[in-house]
Amino acid sequence: MMARPALPKYTVPSLTVEDGAKVAAILQERLNALNDLQLTLKHIHWNVTGPHFIAVHEMIDPQVDQVREMVDAIAERIATLGVAPVGTPGALVKARSWDDYAIGRAGAIEHLGALNEVYVGVISDHRKAAEETEELDTVTNDLLVGHLHELELFHWFVRAHLESAGGALSTAGADGEKKAAKAAKAGAHG
Predict the structure, then answer these.
(1) I want to staple 114 with a disulfide (CB 3.0 to 4.6 A). Which of 31, 91, 159, 177 is the partner?
(2) What was the pLDDT predicted at 182?
(3) Rounded to whole angstroms, what are the CA distances from 19 to 2, 28, 46, 133?
(4) Would you kindly state where each structural domain of the chain is located, as residue ranges?
(5) Is the pTM value of this prediction over 0.85?
(6) How far apart, in whole angstroms, are the C-alpha atoms of residue 141 and residue 120?
(7) Is 12 helix (H, G, I), strand (E, B) or coil?
(8) DSSP secondary-structure letter at 175?
(9) Which residue range or ranges hold the Ferritin/DPS domain (predicted)?
(10) What is the pLDDT of residues 132-178, one digit of tens each?
(11) Which long-range CB contacts under 8 A does 69-77 form with residues at least 24 apart?
(12) Residue 131: half-sphere exposure toward Cβ, Cα within 13 Å
């Protein structure tokens, strides 16, 4: 059983310290996920190969920059709620519920297939966090909903590379990053 975190000494007006701590805990999970996402995006940026290299390489950097801004906004919101945000790599690895990104040096379409899976997870969890904060704290909820707009846009950019003219995704039904990468590669050559 996890130890209950200490309550903050203060939080924002109109929230109890208990609710402030609850919102901060939800945000800490999002901070971990977005820190991981920005590192994963940079990893892809460095390891993408093949004929679509430059398009994907250049598409990823603006996503990295935007996700870094999201990380900063979430960390600052946690601090505003009276809790210390934790952004160290060790804490992220210890707290995360997902595995490391599974693809090393690979073709652009393989990385995009795997990245599709990453975005599905991040966006699904971000939506859940937005739902959890909707009644608790409208400011935090608004922050998360704004992030969802950007994350879903980036996801569309990725999916556009995986989509057929008929609207089918080459990664449909793939379970996990490695299988999605393989399906994307097969779909590109099939």
Answers:
(1) 177
(2) 92
(3) 18, 14, 41, 10
(4) 17-188
(5) yes
(6) 20
(7) coil
(8) -
(9) 25-163
(10) 999 999 999 999 999 999 999 999 999 999 998 999 999 999 989 99
(11) 70/34, 70/147, 70/150, 71/31, 71/34, 71/35, 71/38, 73/143, 73/147, 74/27, 74/30, 74/31, 74/34, 74/143, 75/31, 77/27, 77/139, 77/140, 77/143
(12) 6
Q: How confident is the model at residue 6 (pLDDT cuts 50, 70, 90)?
A: confident
Tell me how many degrees the CA angle 41-42-46 measures, rounded to the nearest 5: 120
Structure token pair of residue 32:
């971990």
Nearest alpha-carbon partner for 31 in 126, 149, 146: 126
| Distance between CA atoms of residues 154 and 62, nearest Å | 9
Tokens standing for residue 162: 């995986």
Q: Which residue has the tokens 């990295």?
A: 64
